[in-house]
Amino acid sequence: MSRPLRRLDRHDGRNSVAARAGAKASRAKVPQLDWSDVRPAPIVLVSGAEDVLAERAMTTLRDVLRSEDPSLEVTDIEADGYTRGTLLTIASPSLFGEPRLIRVTGVEKASDEFLLDALDYLGAPAEGTTVVLRHRSGNRGRKLLDAVRAGDGGGIEVVCAELKRDADKQEFAAAEFRLAGRRIAPGALRALVNALGDDLGELAAACRQLIADAPGAIDERTVEKYYGGRVETTAFEVADAAIAGRHGEALIALRHALDSGADPVPMVAAFAMKIRTMAKVAGSRGASASSLGLAPWQVDRARRDLAGWSDEGLATAIRALADADAGVKGAERDPVFALERLVGVIAGRGRG
C-alpha cells in the first residue's frame, strides 16, 4: 500500500508537485516526496524533468547528511560512461567507516553495465551509504526505476516535475527566501515571478541576487528597482541576445527594458552572472558541476553560450563588465551609455 501524501500546511502554502505526479506515483510502494521534503534513505530516486528542483533536492540532501556527520564522503558517477564494478567498489565500507553519498547522474541514458550493477546493489545496499539516482525522463532504465518504486533497496522517490503554474513558481521562490532566512512581501513575490517566471533557473538566480544584494525585508519597491517593468523584457533576455552575438536585438531589448523602468545596476549584474559562469566553465573543461559549485543546468547553459567565444574574448568581456559596473554606479555621467558600450563588447564576443 502506498504511503499517503501529506497535505501541505500554511508554512508551505502550496499543493505538492508530487501529489500531481499521476497514476504512476500512486502505484509506487515507496514514499513519493516533493523536492523540498527530501530526506536520507539508502536509495533516493530523483525523477522528473525540472533540473533546478532536482539540484535543490540533491543539495539539500547532501547538506543534511553532512550536518549529521561532517566526514561525509561525496562521489559523483555518470551513468552513461560507467565501468562495471565501480558502484560496488565506491559503496564498500572504508577503513574508518565514514558515511558515503554517491550521486549518479544521467540514469535516463545509463549503460547496461550500470543498470546491472545498480539492480544488484538494490538487493544489499551498503550500510551508511546513500545512493542518489537522477533520472530525468524516458524509458531507459525502466527496470531499475520499477524496482526502486517497488521497494527494493528501501528507498524513496523525489518527484521534480516541471512547474507550470504561477502559484507553484511563487512557492518555489518563497522557499528560496525562507531557506535563506529572508522575508519577501506577497506582492513582491508575484512581481518577481511575473518578471522571471518563464525560466525557473533565472528565477532562482534572481532570488539569490536579491538575497545577496538587497538588505532587509524585500518589498515591491525592491523588486521594482531590480526587475520592474520587465515582464516583456528581462535583463537576462538582453544578456542572452548579446552573448549570442545579436547586437541589434540586444540594443533594442535593452532600450525597451530601460524605457520600462529597469535600473542599470541590476542589468549589469545579470550580464556579470552569465559571463562569470561562462568563464568558470571555460576554465575548468571536463570538471563536474558539483566541483564548480554550479548546478548541472548552469553548466549545460554556459557550454551552449560559449559557442564562438575565445578565452581572450572572455577576459575582455570581464574587464568591460568591471568598467560598466563602475559606470552605472556613478563613475560615468551617462549610465545608459556605459550599458550600451558593454552590450557592444559582449555582442562582439570581446573582439571589439
Helix/strand order, N-terminal first: HEEHEHEHEHEHHHHHHHHHHH
Structural class: alpha/beta
State the major sheet.
6 strands, parallel
* Spatial strand sequence of the major β-sheet: 1-6-2-5-4-3
- The parts where pLDDT drops under 50 for at least 5 residues are 1-26
C-alpha termini separation: 65 Å
Q: Output the radius of gyration.
A: 22 Å
Helix content: 40-55%
Would you write up a description of this structure?
Strand 4 (100-105), helix 4 and strand 5 form a beta-alpha-beta unit. The protein is of the alpha/beta class and 352 residues long. The protein folds into 3 domains: 18-159, Rossmann fold (3-Layer(aba) Sandwich), CATH 3.40.50.300; 163-228, Helicase, Ruva Protein, domain 3 (Orthogonal Bundle); 233-352, Zinc Finger, Delta Prime, domain 3 (Up-down Bundle). The protein has helices spanning 23-27, 51-68, 86-91, 112-123, 142-149, 166-179, 186-196, 200-213, 220-227, 235-243, 247-259, 264-282, 289-292, 296-305, 311-331, 335-347; strands spanning 32-34, 43-47, 73-78, 100-105, 129-135, 156-159. It has a 6-stranded parallel β-sheet, with helices on both faces. Helices cover 53% and strands 9% of the residues. Helix 4 packs parallel to helix 5 and helix 15 packs antiparallel against helix 16.
